[in-house]
Amino acid sequence: MLSVPHYSKKIEWKNKNGKVIFVFYHNKLVERLVRLFVKKPETTTLELYEIGSTVWNLIDGKRNVYEMGQKLKERFRDSVEPFYDRLIIFMRYLNRRGWGKY
Q: Which InterPro entries does the UniProt record give (predicted)?
């Protein structure tokens, strides 16, 4: 697969000790109203596991999916097999959520 993934500007994220953390703000009108009645925080976070964080950090707008798969194979060896299947599923998930495009 020769498509080149890139980040969506819709997602806010930070890198903490090599782990990627997505930050979600709950500031829509309905969410603010719910917060009045239920103890719900203004923000929530989602921390990616090691492989997901590595994939996210490999997205640079220049590397294609094939090259990203090769980097994953170099770093994690057999623990990510079948690595292209897993990588494509993860990229589709990011695309469906609107967090990444490819």
A: PQQD (IPR008792), PqqD_sf (IPR041881)
